[in-house]
Write a structure and sequence with these properties.
Elements (H helix, E strand, L loop, with lengths): L8 E4 L6 E5 L10 H9 L3 E5 L15 H9 L11 E5 L1 H12 L7 E4 L7 H16 L3 H7 L5 H13 L2 H9 L7 H6 L4 E5 L10 H7 L5 E5 L7 H4 L1 H12 L1
Helix pairs in contact: 1-11, 2-3, 4-7, 5-6
Length: about 250
């Protein structure tokens, strides 16, 4: 696995509660996981969100393979040491977290995957490419608000900032360096309790159909779907998504 970089952290909640790690998706950053962080803190957890390599204020590097992202997460531990009580990963963060949890079962006690990018078809990759290209073309608050008028103002503000702070080269390389984007073997090897919070296929989901059916053959994996939510359900339907997360962690 490539040499890890140290990921900057944001945190919410008491240090004496259970500890959760939050890993964001491509083109985002740790601050955009605030819905999960605040909800977990209110429930007594200590939640830590990281900026992945090439994103936010995280170190830049040359390697943007899924293995590199996974190596950084594997090297990220609670400040108290030991294992995470839960790891929550969205999209790219979900793929990287799946790879780590499969290789290192002692890394976390449970896993929650938010519309994870487990395996991307050519159509999926084109959808992701077009979305990132659009975001970088105009990373202003006004453009984000126009594209997502129903989002909370904080999400609009933070999404614009995340795009402005992300390395466009790193985001592009994440696609180019993962010519085959597929962690299904890792998903099949998971032994920790895992819950997938899926987006609504009628809106936009990267985890649905035959892919979801295949991953759900692993008996440790369960799934719920957030009706009316696209690929970022915590921004599209935050209340329902937070409720699904807390239920999965109960």
């Amino acid at each position: 696995m490539p040499a890890p970089v140290t990921l900057p952290r944001l945190s919410w909640g008491p240090f004496d509660g259970p500890h959760a790690l939050l890993a964001h998706g491509l083109g985002s950053d740790g601050a955009l996981m605030w819905r999960y962080g605040t909800a977990l803190a209110d429930a007594g957890w200590h939640a830590v969100a990281v900026d992945l390599r090439g994103h936010g204020v995280a170190p830049r590097a040359l390697d943007y393979s899924i293995a590199a992202y996974a190596g950084d997460l594997a090297a990220t531990a609670p400040v108290t040491g030991g294992e995470w009580d839960a790891v929550i990963g969205h999209s790219l963060g979900g793929a990287a977290a799946t790879a780590v949890a499969a290789d290192e079962p002692g890394w976390t006690r449970r896993l929650v995957l938010i519309d994870p990018a487990i395996s991307l078809s050519d159509d999926d990759r084109e959808t992701v490419r077009a979305s990132q290209e659009e975001a970088f073309a105009d990373p202003s608050i006004e453009a984000v608000r126009a594209a997502h008028p129903d989002w909370h103002p904080i999400d609009i503000e933070l999404k614009a900032r995340a795009t402005q702070r992300a390395s466009r080269w790193a985001v592009e390389q994440t696609s180019l360096q993962n010519a085959v984007w597929d962690v299904r073997a890792a998903a099949a090897a998971l032994t920790v309790p895992t819950h997938v919070i899926g987006a609504d296929p009628a809106v936009l989901s990267l985890f649905t159909g035959d892919l979801a059916a295949e991953v759900l053959q692993n008996p440790v994996v369960t799934m719920s779907v957030i009706a009316g939510a696209g690929h970022s359900p915590h921004r599209d339907r935050p209340e329902a998504t937070v409720a699904a997360l807390l239920e999965a962690l109960a």
